[in-house]
Amino acid sequence: MRKRSSGVDRRKLLAGSLSLIALSGVSTVIAKRGSLLPPPKGNRVVVLGGGYGGVTAAKYVKKEVPEADVILIEKNQLFVSCPLSNHYLVGLIDYGQLCFPYNRLHTKYGVKVVNDVVADIDLPKRRVYLSRGYIDYDYLILSPGIEYDYDSAPYFKEANWYYPGAFRPGSEHLYLRRLLEEFEGENIVFTVPKMPYRCPPAPYERAALVLSYIKENGLKAHMYFIDANEYPPVLRDGFMKAYEDFYRGMATYITGATIKDVDLGTRKIKTDKGEVRFDFGSLIPPMRAPKLLEDIGLIYGREKWVRVNPMTFETKVRNVFVIGDSCESYLPKSGYAANSQAKVVARIVASRIRGKEYGGELIQHGVCYAMVNLKSAIMLEVEYKYNIKTKEITKVLREDNTWKVSTAKRYYEWARGLWRDMFF
User: Which site among 37, 64, 266, 382 is 20 to 30 Å from 215 CA-CA?
Assistant: First the structure.
């Protein structure tokens, strides 16, 4: 086996980046300075979070209402896509293909991008506090994504310094790729949290791709796939058939398992169905909406996601919307779903800026692709249509569980189409 780097080195590598994830990690004492921007000439729309939902919302509000002052607040300089990041892990694409600069939104559409960390939001005052000052708004669209829920599973926190879940874009994927490249064999462990979590098919796709990578590179390894769910929540038939056809004898699928502890010293995961020793893995913690949304009163009690009107995404506070992974929604939590929800909210906000309520049909659309080996994929599509006048909701669901090379090719085009829609 390869010589492993010390825990201290790994901790230094990841701890810094993990600490930056918290959106509320800046003292409000520091943040409550003066206004960062002069008063707008018209309505100001502030969008928090530069993921699929936030970028789409900012762009489409500005396209619908060019005279509006649209501000996107995002702490990072670059957008990095989680969709297709599993492809990067096994070398199917380069990391740079997942990255886009936010300044495209400013140069092409006039969206002002503020790179800063949000410390607090005062909903009654309609004010967002950042590390360098505050920004007032007329409309607020929140799309901050997810946080790992270490409170409910504290043993994941340290474990993620060594074996990252890689469900947040950036350094976690870079480090997991490095670990996989250094892996020489023996036991792999992947974990899947209880639903809901970001991108339901992603852990199963990752397992399939890593198994393909192991097979192609002739490594002697066995995967233990520990799933808190009884079966894959989407594309069940496609995944199970793929594991049977391609990876029989290479993996043990442990279903409905509750993780009790992770012992990093002995590299063992303890579950209610026994212990598993591992040499390499991706430990995906349970997830929740960022605690910032709880601190400002948009999450209640022990809930983990923001309750919104499921078709308009408006919260209990008028003109404050939550989209993407942070909210409860009909659609699964995914980048494509956030993109679709953002367009719904952009229409509603644009209509209100013009002094009227949006009265047309609202459509939410979700598409998920998943690789089952290095060349083939399966997919699902779901759509909800909501008639505001009749209050009727219609749902259409289609799954294609037959693994195909042509579906994998459409997978890449689907992602490129999303990126064009957001940035070009």
Answer: 266
